[in-house]
Design a protein that fits this description.
297 residues; mainly alpha; two-stranded antiparallel ribbon; 18 helices; 4 strands; 4% strand
Length: 297
């Protein structure tokens, strides 16, 4: 940890209405700029020491940029992000990575980059700021889906779902909500468990809604839990709407010679489908079968 870490750590949220806090935050921002910028040009100091200040880690491997997210200080976050992306690098590979600094690197001890910390700490404006280097944020889809997850295999979208700040990512990045965490949860599982009905409704509008519904976990119990079971327990209105609009098909109108109502029982009588939905279920079954076969030999 260096002086820049301490300066950022001692700052507070930019949203504070307390005059003393505002004055302290302004002073901490001035200190950050004094450490990083060359006055009066206000350009980044061309000095290896500045690079070391920005890239240094504390005991949890957090850089000052990580801490700025946790402090929820907009001005300091923008100052540090701009400074990190304007660093001069003699290595061509490092120079190419500048545009993604804060997104794919650096990572702290939990495997989270500053972008993942933004999602974890409910900082939507920071997410927009950090992804603004491309004219179309949908170009980040591959990075968000396949290159960016923490040690629990939680993507930016998973973390954002758990903090109810996911709408921007859903609307403007095309990130995949069907990806599962290390424990087998997708974004719908997380949104229902966290009791965020607006996000649940938004996810169920996706064309991949069936894939999202095809999920099961045991959570320390012999009885599996699925998205439909979670909805019936905690969001019965959405469960009813799902049955009415997604699981029910009417052929012909009432009073006509041919009038038929068909029900899709896939997610209602789901007991026989759970084996296909639980990521570890097939492996468990295979192990049991192997044990039985070995015993019979």
């Amino acid at each position: 940890m260096n002086v820049l870490h301490i300066c950022v750590e001692q700052s507070g949220p930019s949203s504070s209405k307390n005059q003393n806090d505002e004055n302290k935050n302004k002073r901490y921002l001035e200190i950050c700029k004094a450490l990083l910028l060359d006055y009066p040009s206000k350009k980044l100091l061309d000095d290896d020491n500045v690079k070391q200040l920005l890239q240094a880690c504390d005991n949890e491997k957090n850089t000052p940029l990580h801490l700025a997210v946790k402090a929820n200080n907009t001005e300091i976050f923008k100052c540090l992000l701009e400074s990190c992306r304007n660093m001069k690098n003699t290595n061509p590979d490092e120079e190419k990575k500048k545009a993604t600094y804060g997104i794919t690197e650096p990572r702290n001890r939990s495997g989270r980059t500053p972008l993942l910390e933004c999602a974890k700490h409910n900082c939507t404006s920071f997410i927009e700021e950090i992804l603004s280097t491309k004219d179309n944020s949908r170009k980040w889809k591959t990075v968000l889906d396949h290159q960016l997850s923490d040690q629990d295999r939680m993507t930016c979208l998973h973390l954002a779902c758990s903090q109810e700040v996911v709408i921007y990512l859903l609307d403007y990045t095309d990130a995949d909500p069907t990806i599962r965490t290390a424990k087998g949860y997708n974004c719908l599982d997380i949104a229902i468990a966290k009791h965020y009905p607006n996000i649940v409704k938004r996810l169920l509008e996706y064309s991949e809604w069936r894939t999202l519904m095809e999920s099961a976990q045991y959570e320390g119990s012999d009885v599996p839990i699925t998205p439909m079971r979670r909805l019936i327990i905690s969001m019965p209105d959405i469960a009813y709407e799902l049955i009415d609009k997604r699981f029910t098909t009417s052929i012909g109108d009432e009073g006509q010679p041919k009038h038929l109502i068909k029900y899709d029982y896939t997610f209602i009588d789901d007991h026989y489908n759970i084996c296909d939905w639980h990521p570890g279920e097939l492996l468990i079954i295979q192990r049991v079968l192997n044990t039985i076969i070995s015993a019979l030999k």
